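Suppose you are handed a protein chain with no further information: no name, no annotation, nothing but its sequence. What can you learn? This example shows the usual starting point.
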Amino acid sequence: MEDSLNDKKTILLVEDNPDDEELTRLALTRSNIANEIIVAHDGAEALDFLLATGIHAARNIRMMPSVMLLDLKLPKVGGIEVLQRIRADERTRLLPVVVLTSSKEEQDIVTSYRFGANSYIRKPVNFEQFIDAVRQLGLYWLLINESPWQSIEFK
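A reasonable first move is to predict its three-dimensional structure. Written in C-alpha cells, the prediction is:
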C-alpha cells in the first residue's frame, strides 16, 4: 500500500493563534507524541488542505490525517463552518474531529456536536493540565482509535 498520512498517523491542527499552536506542539512533544503535525492557520486553509483545493489542489485526497484538532474562533472560515463542510463531503465525512478551543460558550459545545464533532475539549488555562489533555488526546486518537481510512473507497 502507498505510504500516506494515514500510515503516519498525522495530526491536522487548525489554529490561528501562534501561542496556542506552540503550546499544542510543546504539549505533544512533552507527551512523547512525535507524529507529524500539519498546521492550517485559518478555516479556509484547513478546507483547502482537506478537500485538495486552492494551494493544495495537487494533494492526494486519499492522504487524510488521523485526527483534526479544530479551534472554533478562526479567521476567514469559522470552525463550525469547517465542521459543517467536511461533514457534508463524502471524502472527509469520517475524519475524527476534536474541537480544541478556549470558547466557554455552551452553545458552541451543542453546535459542535450537532455538526459532527467527535469530542469537545476546552483548552485548560493551566499549562500542566493542557499537557495532560493533549497527552490523553494523542494516546486515544493516535494509538487506540481505529481509523476508517484504510477501509473506505475514495471516488
